[in-house]
Amino acid sequence: MGRNKIILLPKSKRILTDLGENIRLARLRRKLSAEQVAERANISRPTLLSIEKGAANTSMRAYLQVLFVLGLEKDLLKVAKDDTLGRKLQDISITTKTRAPKKNRDEQEK
């Protein structure tokens, strides 16, 4: 059996392309060659170039290793950290017990 082909929506492709470009810019800001980063990340140079192009078939492990080399691994911890939609959905499904309204003291004395 062969592998299933990964089909990405245009928006997803754009996100990967932007991520790859950000990684490339981070490498260039640090004045590191593609060869140096690939060697330190223990990946091939073509794999690094695939990452920088935002290739969907490149493993998450390779992305993570490059981010470690560039000192950007903590950026991954920010992914889905502030999940406002998830919190709203969770709050909607929380049920609260309803109580009878409290009686006023005036009504109790009658």
UniProtKB/TrEMBL annotation:
InterPro entries (UniProt xref): Cro/C1-type_HTH, Lambda_DNA-bd_dom_sf
Region feature (Disordered): 91-110
SUPFAM superfamilies: lambda repressor-like DNA-binding domains
Pfam families: HTH_31
Signal sequence coordinates: none
Gene3D superfamilies according to UniProt: lambda repressor-like DNA-binding domains
SMART domains: HTH_XRE
Every HTH cro/C1-type domain range: 23-77
Name of the protein in question: Helix-turn-helix domain-containing protein
